[in-house]
Each structure stands twice: as C-alpha cells, then as structure tokens.
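Can't paste images in this forum, so I'm doing it all in text. The chain is below; anyone willing to post the predicted structure tokens underneath?
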Amino acid sequence: MKKIIIMRKMAVVIIGLTAALTVNAKLITFINNEPGKLVYVINNKAKGTSTLHVTNMKIIGKINSEDLSLIHTMCTEWVLDTLDLSEVRIVGSEQQRSGSGVMRSKKVKSDEIDNSMFSQTHLKWISLPATTKRIGEEAFEFCEELRTVVIPNSVKEIGKRAFAYCKKLTDITLPRDLTAIPDALFYDCESLPKLTIPQNVETIGDNAFAVCKAIPSVVIPDRVKTIGYSAFSAMQSVKSIVIGKGVEYIDTYAFFNNPHLEKLVMSPSIKTMKNGVFSTCPSLKEVDFCAQLDSLPAYTFYKNTSLQKVILPPTIKVIDDNAFRDCTALKGIYIQSLDQWLKMKFVNDRIWNVTSNPLQYAHNLYVNNKLVTDFVFPEGTTAVPDALLFGSSVKSITLPQTLKYIGLLAFYGCRNLKSIYYYGTKPAACADGNVFKQVPQSNCTVYLLPGVEKFPFLLNFNWSNFQYDYMKVTAVDKVQADDGVSKFPIYDIDGRYRGDDATKLHKGLYISNGKKFLKR
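Text version of the structure:
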C-alpha cells in the first residue's frame, strides 16, 4: 500500500515538471533595462519557474557580459533553445564566465557576438541584435541542433568557423555588406539547402563551404578575387558551379571531390590556380578553360572519369604532372592554333613511359574545332618536343628537312599513323627507343624525297621497321585550297622550303604533302 502511495506521488511530481516545461515553451519576453540584471528579471517574471525552465525567450533592452554568461548557461546546461535578441543592444563590459568551454576575464565589445559565445549550445533558433557589427570566431561552432540564424545587415565581419559543424542548419542569410567569407564558415553544415554569397564578397576562405552536402548549385559573384583551399570541396549534391568573372586566384583542391558536378563555368580572369582544383569530379563532362593561366597545374582534372571535352586557352604553355590522370572518357582537346601545341611542355617519365599529355586519353586534337589528322611540322623545326603526339589519332606526319631530333615519347602510341612524309636526307636522332613505340610500323610508310638513300634509315634502330617509298609526281596547277594557300609546306625538288602559298611560286616542279606538283 505504501509503495502505491509513493508511486502516485512520484507521478504527480513528474507531471508537474512536464507541465512547467510545456507551459514555458511559449515565447516569454523579458525587458532588461539595466545590464547585468537579466537573471533577476527572468526569475521575477517566471514566477517561481526560474531560468531553468525557460525554452523560448525574447529580450528587449541592454545586456552585458554577465547577461550573456547567463544566456550561455541557459542554452547549454538548461533548456533554452529559442532566443530572440533582435531588440537587444550588447554593451561592452568585462566578462567573468565559468564552466566548461567558457573563457574568463575577457572583455566583450559593444555590438559584437564574441568568440565562441554560443558554441556547443543546444539552440535551435536565434535572431541576433539589430545593431550587431561582428560575429566572432566559432560563435556557433558545434551547435548541432541549430536550424535558423537571423543575421542583421549591420554585420560587416564574421570570424572563422562561426557556424562550422551546425549539422541541422537550414535557414541563414549572410549580410549584404559582408566582404569576406572566413575560413570554414559553414564547414560540415550538411543540411544547408542553398547558398547565396553576398555581391560585395571579395575573398572566400579555406574550407568555407566544404562538406555542405545539400547545396545543389553555387554562383560565385563577380567581385570575388580569391577562393581558398578546399573552399567548395565534398559538397556531394552540387551539380552546377559558376565562377565569377573577377576571380583571379584559386587555391589547392578548391572544388575537389564533388561527385555530381556536371556544369562548370570558368572565369576568364583566373591568373593563378593551384593543384587539384577540380580533381575527383567524376560527373563533369566538359570544361571551357577560358582563363589566363600559363600552365595547367598538377592533378587539375584527376579522376574526372566522365570528362569528354576540354577547351584550353591560348595562354597555356605547360600541362603539369597528372593534370588529366584517369580521365578515361576524354574524346577531344581543343586549342586555337597548332603553334600553341608545338610549344606545349609536358611532364614525362622516361622509365614508366608516362606523360601528362591528355592525348593519351583523348587521342583527338582539334584546332579551331577541326580534327587534326595530318600533323605538319613547319619548316625551321629542328626538334619534336617530348611526348608531343603521345597517343594521338593522327594519320600522317610531315617532318621538315631542318629536323635533327625527335624527343622522348614524341609519337608513342600513335596507332592510326599510316604515313610519314620526311623531307630530310638522314634519319633524325631519337631520344630513345620509345619514340615510335606502339606505332604499327609494318603498316606505316615513310615517304622520302626522290633520290634519298633508304639504307641509313634501314640501319637505324628507331626507323628500321617502317615501310619505305618515294614521294609521287602529280601534275596540278594549285595546292589544296582554291586561294593557293596550302596547309602543308611546299618544297622545291632539291628539298628547299618555299612557303605554303602556291600563287607566289615560279614555274617548276614542287613537293607538298608527300606529292609532287607542277606549277605552270
């Protein structure tokens, strides 16, 4: 009988506490006219319920460090989860706090949300004071229940990691006059559904939006000049990224590991870009690289396994190590002039026969949107650069009489090569035995000028397995195009270069593209 009575009394106590908490879920407004007295105002108005049971609170008036210390305790150790400070003014004062994760004897500046002020609390909703000028570092870091933050446009600065690890954050708008997105501002805010970067922002810090898994698209404003390390990496859901026209610098891995990224709009102003910026974006299919870069950094498109088309700007002179590694779906590299490709430098490995030349995957080189099937080295060329046509789909190559040397891996893997028109009298020296490796030499013919001795070629290790023939004579009045301009160099019968304009030739016999023609 006594057990039953005790159990009934316990039930009544539990019901009473639950009722107290439920009643106080309604918004309670406290007017605090004297900074430092908030605890008394709350306890007086709560009428015995005390600060322990307030869950939804609005404050009007002025608060200082003591009041903020109380609020911090209410939303860490007690039950406060909804806080409206929109009509509050924070006044500067000496801060005396105690408890885990809270600093002591620190000054709180007027109109500022101090560093770590609300970090690791169980707040769900908060509206900041309308007069707030700055939000400090880690101000809301690890607020894992936080859903909504109302920030006034008076805020001009936000500190590093201010909202990092707020995993349930879904509703926040950055102030319009913000000029810098700090490091890790929204790092691992995995529920954030959209992203609007204010138009006045000029810099985006390291890891600023990394691991924001729910954002579907990113538009970077034109005033942004700098994008930090891994700023937009591992966003998981992002499908479209537009880089503003003013961006000049992009740091390492800025857009790394975005598996669903399909659309990328580049900035024409990019002058510096670090390694791996767009690596591991396996859904990206096309990139128009309209930038001012002089080199394509290492691992730029590493493991972009759906990438099919890349348009390189005319400023690119170097393609660095592994820039296109494992881009197995590449179908074409697009450039504006053949001269650009002739000057291109790649990173090559003699031991492993590895190169950074994307033609090993793409095979097809396009100049002004036209597929290059006949690659003509201009007269005056003395050396073929290393790995220049590695894996290319070219069908014919024209080598001038001035050629002396063929670089490492220059024609490695040119499996479609059928004809080499050679205007020299002796075989050019080769970097090693891999210059023509994987070229079907038994089905490829080297065409020599009439009278050139074949014997030196047949004795040369790199040249010995080709088929040999002499260039044929045809009687025609013009070469190739109707305007008389040929895409192939023209030589006289003695092998001297005569340009590429047949209209300027004297009467006589000439050779172009492996064929003789008569100028009448």
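The first strand starts at residue 28 and ends at 32. The chain is about 10% helix and 25% strand.
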